[in-house]
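Continuing from the previous page of notes. For each protein in this section, the sequence appears first, followed by its structure tokens. Read the first protein now.
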Amino acid sequence: MEGRGYSARLKILLFSGRPVLLQERAWCEWWHFELVAFEHYIPVKEDLSDLLEMVSWARDHPEEADKIAKAAKLFADTKLTRAAALARWAAALGEAAGF
């Protein structure tokens, strides 16, 4: 759940190999925009009005939830590494410098 300050916990959860229920949020990191609902996470509305529905969906669809968990882990293993972060920084700095 979104809080009032920065937390890197979502990254850790994506590495866990378990399905992640992700609350809609206004504040995102650069890699959030590559996450796809029902591919990398199970979406939950910002006001949590569908939280119980999404938990029930995950329980009722264990194969799909497992597939989402595996895709999230693969995403984390490839996109949330030090090397990937450095490559993104290099690309951003290159764009800013006009390269």
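Done with the first. The second protein uses the same format. Note its length before scrolling.
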Amino acid sequence: MIDPSTEFGAHVAKRLQEERVVWLTTLASDGTPQPNPVWFYWDGETVLVYSQPTASKLRNISRCSKVSVNLEGADELGGDIVVITGDAFIDETAPKPDSRFIDKYREVIAKLGQTAESLAASYSVAIRVRPNKIRDF
């Protein structure tokens, strides 16, 4: 979906590699959008997020797989916002947070007083988002 051979696709792929937090928006049972800041890993095809097993976003995704992933503005005027819409699913085959994910957040994990193992135990449910549309502002 994201074509890194185009200027726009390369820019989005670079931001997905470098950004630390994105906003994952799911829909509550009454249709209310539920945005949550999340750590993530872009594997070139999907956005991979790890969640605590009791998080409401898991129930929301089970009911409605339509989600958005939003990257915040990257310039001083609030521009360069990227919005990715897609379908989310719980990936029971995904490994626990692997070295790529842990390496991305190693410093923050340590600052929070956690280890890679404690993070993986707390955030044990993998969510994958397959993009189907991307737009920017």
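What the second structure shows: The first strand starts at residue 22 and ends at 27. The chain has a mean pLDDT of 93. We return to this in next week's lecture.
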